[in-house]
Every structure is written in C-alpha cells, then in structure tokens.
Design brief:
Number of strands of chain A: 10
Strand content of chain B: under 5%
Helix content of chain A: 25-40%
Radius of gyration of chain A: 18 Å
Order of helices and strands of chain B: HHHHHHHHHH
Distance between the termini of chain B: 42 Å
Number of domains of chain B: 1
Structural class of chain B: mainly alpha
CATH class of chain B: Mainly Alpha
Oligomer: heterodimer
Number of helices of chain B: 10
Strand order of the largest sheet of chain A: 6-7-8-3-9-10
Helix content of chain B: over 70%
Shape of chain A: globular
CATH topology of the largest domain in chain A: Rossmann fold
Order of helices and strands of chain A: EEEHEEEHHHHEHEHEEHH
Number of helices of chain A: 9
Structural class of chain A: alpha/beta
CATH architecture of chain B: Orthogonal Bundle
Largest sheet of chain B: none
Distance between the termini of chain A: 33 Å
Radius of gyration of chain B: 23 Å
C-alpha cells in the first residue's frame, strides 16, 4: 500500500520571467515500510522535496498524498530529522527534556513523559547523557538525540534530511547501522536524503537519483541486498558495487 | 587585584579632604568628605534617608514591573506576528521619542501627587529598552525551531512559551538591566521636578536649605542604590535563566 504519493509535483519560486523552477514534475510512490534514499547533486532540490513531504513547503502545482490524504501542512505523523541538529535541539533543556518535548501536549503526566523519554534514550544507548545538555555532547550524539525525539512523536513516516552530512566517517557508519536497525525494528517508512552514493545504497530499499536545474527524477534503482546489512560485506557485495557504478556514472554525466 | 580599583577614589577623596582643611575649597559648595559622612550618618539614624529610599524604590520598582510586563508581552506580539508589527509599530515609533520628563505634567493631572504618577513616568521611560530587546530577540529566533514546533503541532502560545521565550531570555535580561537603570533616573527626576517624596525631593530640599553635606551624602546614596539594584537584577537574571535551563516553566 502506498504510504506517500507525489503526483506531478512542481515547485517554483518567484513568478514571471524571474521564476526559478526548483522541482519539475516529480512522480513518486513510497510504499509502507519502505526505506527510500534520495540522492542528487547539490542544488537539485532534494531538501526541498523532503520539506514538501513534511508539509513545511507547499507545491506550486501537483499533489502530495500521505496515506491517501492531501498534505496541507506539518503534522506529528511525519517526523523530520534536520541536518543541523544544533539548531533543532533546545540548548536550555537537558537531553531527556528535549525528547520529552515530543510528548508535551499529549496525555502523559510529567513523570510519565520523563520515564518514556528515558526508556527511549535507553533503547538508543543514550541513557547516560539524559541529564546533560545538547551543547555538552558530540555532533553524533546530538543527532541521535534528535532522532530519539523524532521517534518519541511516534511518526508514521520518518523524513531525514542529510542527517549525517556534518558527521565524520566513523560516526556516520555507526549511525547508518543504528537508523537501519531502528527503522527495521519499528517497521517505519523512511525517506533519507543524502549526497553520499554509498550511504544511499547501503540504507535504501530503493534509491531515487535526482537531476538538477530543475530538480527531476533521473533514475530509480531497486536495491535487493539482504538485511541486516553489514558495513564490510554489503559494501563489497557485487550488487552494491554494480549500483554504485551505475549511479556514479549517471550523476557524473549531470 | 580588585583593590586597585579603590586606589583612585581613595586618593581623590583624601586630596579633597586635605584641600578643604587647607581652606582651598569653599565649604558652601563643596562639603568636606568627613562632614558628608557625618551627615549621612545623621540622615540614616533619624530615619529620613530610609523613608526617602523606600519611597523612591517603591516608585522605581512599581514602574519597572509595569514596564517589564508591557515590554515583554508587546515585544512577543510584535516579534512573532507581522500583522501585530504592522499595526502597533508605527504608534510605538511615534511615542518613543517623547521625553519621559515631558509626561510629568500629564501624569500629575491624571494621577495627582504620589507613587502612581511617579511610577507611570518611570514605566514610560524604561519600557523601551525592554520592548526593543524583546522584539529583536524574538525576531532573531531560529526559523528551524518554528518548524520543529509546527511538526510537533504546538499552538502559537506553546511555541512562544516553550521555544521563543527561553531562547530570548538572555537578551530580555539585558534590556531589563538597561531599563532598571533608567527607572531609577526617572524616579529621582520626577521627585526633583515635582513629586514631594523620595530621594530626589530630599536632595533638592537639602540643597535649598543650605545643607550641601547632606545633599552630597544623598547623591552618593542614590549611586549605591543604583548599583545594588543592578546587582540584584543580575542575580535574579541568572536564576531565571538557570530555571529555564533546567525544567521549570516547561
């Protein structure tokens, strides 16, 4: 069943002669429980595409359907993990209270909010920093806190915008495996924006490659690699290398 | 070495005392430091100084609290909503250049002598730095936080309380400190000009009744009050910030 459906979605900024077309005629269907990676050169509108799915931007033409209903604005059902974790977390709240933010306004009491937040942090092995402030943590840790908060809002889809773009290679790989595990365990539908070819293939059930100026779908690849994936074995697998080669050539010709 | 800061005033006061004793300075205009201290002690022990201090502080704090409430609320509105900004800003910009002292006659007409008219002028004088600091801080809040609030489906009130206000608090604190300094200046001014109460009034009385030593003593006293107020507000500021940083007012 389709979780998200984009029908001929276009987006332009400005009008008349000065109009800039950011996204052009995007058609995309994301199945329930699917992990879709979106890749493309910088300026191809991949972040904008994710913001459209999050309801943070409205399309100029075309429709976006989420579970059959048109997206009219942001919603708790669609969590967004931003690249700039430093700006998305509240520096004056300790880690647990940043997670608890997603419970506030719900039915839980204060005590239950804290308990649930700490449970979630424990499942991500972050319990030991729950009383610390975001500024005291490394970038990777902060991003995991943001992911924890996104999970706390109990979303039906997880939209991630280059979440590991600002992290070093080692941390990146650890977080790739962690996100992979979380998404599989919770059976969440996920959309993952990245500019890293290998990351896109490693994480995705499907990789969508975008072309730039204006942003449009260039190619779709189904990744048949088995799960759980392994940083060494998966990346050395012939199918992985084949996809990598194909996407590399495609994107280079852009 | 903090004591080094005391060297200059101490030397100056010593020179002043010596020059005065050598009859180099006319006593009618420049009292002797030792006389000033004596006058201060007399004013303090008779209770005159304390009564005047309480009266001045009353008006200062009353006016300051009104200004803080109005400044922060208006600043939030104007900073958050462009409609509010378009509707309110022109009126604010028209009012701002009015010298607070010019409002003394109006205030007197409306409220009569006493603490209310003084507090009203004080509030008008010190609302601006608080209002401007709040507006600027709110406008500077990161759009990313607004998106987070939207995704978590918080309403505007929760957004203001959980995201904007805590982020703006540091700058609002700076505005409040500036405002408090102005508040004391305004209160003493109103007392000197028209209101028969407080430190300003007893300052002018001391001068007119040819008690320059008492006048100097009170002048220095006003300075001490000002620094003390600022020090307390800084303390308070840190505490509020820490409360927010923790979990209160979530």
């Amino acid at each position: 069943m389709a979780k998200m459906e984009l029908n001929r979605v276009s987006l332009s900024y400005g009008d008349g002669k000065g109009a800039r077309r950011i996204l052009d005629n995007i058609n995309l269907t994301i199945g329930s429980g699917e992990f879709v990676s979106i890749i493309g050169p910088s300026g191809c509108g991949k972040t904008t595409l994710l913001r459209l799915m999050g309801g943070l931007v409205r399309p100029s033409t075309g429709t976006l359907l989420f579970e059959g209903t048109e997206i009219k604005g942001p919603s708790r059902q669609r969590a967004v993990v931003f690249q700039d974790y430093g700006k998305a977390l509240l520096p004056w709240r300790p880690v647990w209270a940043n997670v608890a933010l997603a419970f506030e306004g719900g039915k839980l009491t204060r005590t239950q909010q804290k308990a649930s937040s700490i449970d979630l942090l424990r499942s991500m092995k972050l319990e030991h920093v729950s009383e610390q402030y975001p500024g005291q943590l490394s970038g990777g840790m902060q991003q995991r806190v943001q992911i924890a908060r996104s999970l706390a809002q109990d979303p039906r889809i997880l939209l991630m915008d280059e979440p590991f773009g600002a992290l070093d290679a080692m941390t990146r790989q650890q977080l790739q495996d962690e996100v992979s595990r979380i998404v599989r365990e919770r059976n969440i539908t996920a959309v993952f924006i990245t500019h890293d070819l290998e990351e896109a293939i490693y994480l995705g059930d499907r990789v969508i490659a975008l072309a730039a100026h204006p942003g449009r779908v260039l190619e779709e690849i189904n990744v048949g690699l088995s799960r759980p994936r392994d940083q060494l074995r998966t990346r050395e697998h012939p199918e992985f290398l084949q996809h990598r080669h194909k996407l590399f050539v495609l994107l280079r010709e852009q | 070495m903090r004591w080094k800061g005391l060297v200059l005033p101490f030397v100056l006061v010593a020179c002043w005392e010596l020059a005065s004793r050598a009859d180099l300075i006319p006593l009618q205009t420049m009292s002797r430091p030792s006389d000033i201290i004596a006058a201060w002690w007399t004013d303090l022990s008779t209770g005159v100084l304390l009564t005047a201090t309480v009266q001045t502080l009353q008006a200062t704090l009353f006016g300051f609290l009104i200004a803080t409430a109005i400044g922060i609320l208006t600043g939030l509105f104007v900073g958050l909503s462009s409609t509010a900004r378009l509707m309110i800003s022109p009126s604010l910009e028209a009012l701002r250049p009015v010298p607070p002292v010019a409002l003394i006659p109006l205030s007197l007409l409306l409220l009569g002598f006493g603490v209310s008219m003084e507090a009203a002028v004080v509030a008008f004088a010190c609302v601006w730095p608080i209002l401007i600091a709040t507006t600027a801080a709110v406008k500077a809040s990161d759009p990313r936080l607004h998106e987070v609030a939207q995704i978590l489906e918080f309403n505007s009130f929760s957004y203001a309380r959980k995201f904007v206000l805590p982020a703006a608090l540091g700058r609002i604190g700076v505005g409040m400190r500036t405002g408090l300094g102005i508040a004391l200046v305004a209160a003493v001014t109103v007392e000197i000009v028209v209101n028969p109460r407080g430190l300003g009034y007893s300052l002018i009385i001391a001068q007119q009744s040819l008690h320059p030593d008492s006048m100097y003593a009170q002048l220095l006293w006003v300075g001490v009050i000002g620094s003390t107020l600022n020090y307390w507000l800084m303390k308070f500021d840190h505490r509020v910030l820490r409360l927010y940083a923790g979990r209160a007012l979530r």
